[in-house]
Amino acid sequence: MSTSEIPSSKVLPETHTVTASSPDLSSKTPVQNVCEQPAQPKPAYTAISQSRRRFILGIVTVAGIFGPLAGNIYLPALPVMARQFHKTETEINVTVTVFMVVFAFGPLVWSSFADWKGRRPLYIISILIYILANVLLAAVPANYGALIVLRVVQAFGSSAVVSLGAGTVADIPDLSDTDDLAISGATLWLVLVFALPETLRARVGNGSVYTDKSWLLLPPKLSSDLVPESERGPPPPKPTLKGYWKLFQYPPIGITCMNTAILYSSYFCIAIQLPSALGDVYHWSSSEVGAGYAVVGVAMVIGSICGGRFSDWRRKQSVQMHGESNIHPEARLNDQIWGLFLASAGLIMFGFFVEHALHPAATLISTFIVGFGMSWMFVASNAFLTLCLAQQAAGAFALGNMLRSPAAAVAAAIITPLVQKMGWGYCFLSLGLLNLLGIDLQEAVLESSVAIAEAEEILSFAEWAFGPRGLPALRVLAFGDFSHGDRYSGQQFLLRRAYPAWGFASKSVAGDTCDDTMRVPFRPADMADPSIWDGVLVEGARFLSACPGGGLMESPYEL
């Protein structure tokens, strides 16, 4: 995948040589692709009406709120709960830790059942589990063991939407407060049962079965009927830890997910410690502490809106300057840096403002800056992941969640002892500096993305040049600087034809497809292999080494 906002003329290395067996290619005509088939009309990607798609998106969005809501709703009351359950703050923070751990890996379990009966049954079952957990949390007497177990169940039930929600979108381009959560969840559950249609393409195709039917699903069924096999889409890929590891190994995705995980865990440190800061330092009541969380909540909303519009505006400007084809997904990562810098500054300010007991307004402003910067960064990250992996967006989002939630769990477990040992100022100074390192990592991402973009541009050109519509006389394709021995070996591409050009035309077509034209028509070549130069009119190795891309030593007199 291509990467940064640079014109195509600057994407490729300076020296690029095409070597053919005949210097005169003007008389050559490309070999026709014998596998070319008449274009067949394609059915609409989705037959579900736009208004109904918006309705589905609204339901999924509301369902997605309940997980983070359950994870954060009683943070303001953590000191009160510690007294009620006769536990230390560190012990009561364990309830946050176990929730975040289960919330991280729960989606892996839920998504593995996506091709069982579709997504609709999983929504219904998971929200029902979530409702039961909240009812029990509100009804069971204060018992620390029961609290831990029910928090695990609550997290498992609410985690399903993390993976199911992204898949659905892709299918269509204080403890006493838990009774309120149960009521809200029950309302949503009824909407899911009676109004949410199935969207899994492996069961309902493009959704044409719902065309001209009522939005109310009467009588309601747990799972939808299967459409004919010819109308179904492919089953969703099974999520595995190995698959997530492959995604993580791609540097832009891996570093982006690491940066968001570090920042989210840093924010979570503020979320965990804010009741202690406002209560112990500023002597606020529990209700006042709860109101203090509104500041960071408003900041997140504003940051998401501003960050999204700024990122879209920058992309629009870049498209006007360089053209749509030269704007790559990694260009969105440039917008992350501003949010990361703001959040880091807010973390440092928060620690020293609390330590020196400055006016509480200053402390709340610092939390606003952290929330604003974090949301700004997350918007840019999500935009990049969606554009970078359009076919695996759900997996990329799940990977981000698998890193963020455990990081937040660790933060919840260690932040109180860290503050006690290091003090407010130095503890959050360390967190701020840790996040600032993410800016250097982001620059490394952009640099590596340029190299990846160059490689993919070259391979795309080679696929055409050696292919049936390319240059039939082409034998060797050299790209890069081959002078000075192996000095620039990391920037060189030397490719040779994999089989004769006439092989395309001599193969017969079996059925509707031709496997031969699907083969990669080139393979890597070794400069030391003399056979690659057979039939070439120049001594290839010496010819390439005689064309440096630049001087071996820079001269102060060069202009």
From TrEMBL:
Q: Name one GO molecular function term.
A: amine transmembrane transporter activity
InterPro entries reported in the protein's UniProt record: MFS, MFS_trans_sf
Pfam families annotated for this entry?
Answer: MFS_1
Localisation per UniProt entry:
Membrane
Going by the UniProt record, its keywords in alphabetical order are:
Membrane, Transmembrane, Transmembrane helix
Cite the residue spans of the region called Disordered: 1-32
* Any one Gene Ontology cellular component term annotated for this protein: plasma membrane
Q: Where is the signal peptide?
A: none
Q: Which ranges are annotated Polar residues under compositional bias? A: 16-32
* SUPFAM superfamilies, sorted: MFS general substrate transporter
Chain segments annotated as transmembrane: 55-77, 92-110, 122-142, 181-200, 291-311, 337-358, 364-389, 396-416
- Protein topology in the membrane: Multi-pass membrane protein
Q: Which domain of life is it from?
A: Eukaryota
- The protein here is known as Major facilitator superfamily (MFS) profile domain-containing protein
